[in-house]
Amino acid sequence: MGSTLVIGIAGGTGSGKTTITRRLQRQFENRVCTLYHDNYYHAHDALTMEERSRLNYDEPAAFETELLIRHLEALRRGEPVDEPVYDYTVHNRSDKVQRILPAPVVLVEGILILENEALCKSMDIKVFVDADADVRILRRIVRDVRERGRSLESVVNQYLTTVKPMHELYVEPSKRRADIIIPEGGHNEVAMELLIRRIQAHLQEVD
């Protein structure tokens, strides 16, 4: 396999990262593979559900980023990896893994991927998806209540106690490491077209 293009897609919770990632996945199908930083949350098997629910999931220490970097390096070498699978309903890593096959383009998605310098160095293009805080909290509420089985009260409490302060402390400053900042996420057609063209050019080189 030829050279691999690694694109990091960062941004706050509810900013539109996943919309961009899914659009690129649909556009390029098996020419793209994706690693989600969220799947690399540390396992906390020794803690109770109550204790796990009180952990701070929005700080760099919550993630096993070293494993993500090793998996990224393996994909660059053309080797498949077994990505962990995180279960949001129990606040813990599940016992399942997902086999990720190497592809010419690797997407890495997560709120804090630009915060980690070593991870940044392994990316070719660093994207930060920007959205207003009120838009992000509303999207987060809808997602967590609908898809992750959370109560409205727990989502709002988590947002105010950890998500918002950690965003201001870690996520927002990491924007400085981005090559491209995309306002309005996956609905920004000009930015999407630029990303798609860049990937198309890389795939033509590889072919």
Architecture overview:
The protein has 207 residues and is α/β, with parallel strands linked by helices. The protein has a single domain (5-199), classed as Rossmann fold, CATH 3.40.50. The chain is 43% helix and 21% strand. The protein has seven helices and seven strands. It has helices at 17-28, 49-53, 65-76, 117-121, 133-147, 152-174, 189-206, and strands spanning 5-11, 32-36, 81-87, 92-100, 105-109, 125-130, 180-183. The protein has a five-stranded parallel β-sheet, sandwiched between helices. A hairpin with a 4-residue loop joins strand 3 (81-87) and strand 4 (92-100). Helix 5 crosses helix 6. It is globular. The relative contact order is 0.24. The model has no long low-confidence stretch (mean pLDDT 94).
Q: Averaging pLDDT over every residue, what do you get? A: 94
User: Uncertain spans, ≥5 residues at pLDDT below 50?
Assistant: none
From the N-terminal CA to the C-terminal CA, the straight-line distance is 9 Å
Approximate shape: globular
Count structural domains. Answer: 1
CATH class assignment: Alpha Beta
Per the CATH scheme, the topology name is Rossmann fold
The secondary-structure class comes to: alpha/beta
Q: Strand sequence of the main sheet, in spatial order?
A: 2-5-1-6-7
Helix content class: 40-55%
The major pleated sheet works out as: 5 strands, parallel
E-strand count: 7
Taking Cα atoms only, what radius of gyration do you get, to the nearest Å?
17 Å
